[in-house]
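pinned: reference chain
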Amino acid sequence: MIKPLVIGFAGGTGSGKTTIAAKIAQTIGQEKAVILPQDAYYRAQNDLPLESRKLTNYDEPSAFDNEYMVEQLSQLISGQSIKSPIYDYDQHNRASENKLINPKEVILIEGIMALHFEDLRKLMTLRVFVDAPPDERFIRRLERDVKERGRNAESVINQYRRTVKPMHDLFVEPTKQHANLIVPEGGTNSIAIDVINAYIAQFLNRS
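pinned: its structure tokens
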């Protein structure tokens, strides 16, 4: 089996990294590409009551079980299927069920800390930082959390001020230095998406 192409997409919350990964996966096709979201690897919090779990800072490196993600990504790269964890945002904990993911020729990783961990970066062929203006990122996060995660606007705003913005400045923004490619304008940058798709097509044609 030829070693798969592994592309990491990092960037702040609401930057468009999930959108770009989804568009690229759709272009390639599900028979050749799989998305591995870093959000699935938030640490389990079974030892904490719900009220304590609600205070989790999801925007710092220690929130992620990076060792487990690296282990499972390594298994995918070696041609093995994995049972990826699923995170339940309502319970602020890892769900009891998991998701079967089979190895594919192209593996797309996306998450705010995708380029933060050195051992995760080493497994990537291409490292991409997806950028967008702070106000636009905040609006996108507000809309997502209210519509998709059932939260109220006040709680989203408070979390943004308390943890999201300071953690972005401290941990996420500096990972630009590890990127091979920086994509401004987020998921609306069709030219950048075309460039990445062309890079992937070249890889697939070689393999």
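why pinned: The domain at 5-41+104-206 is CATH 3.40.50.300 (Rossmann fold). The radius of gyration is 17 Å.
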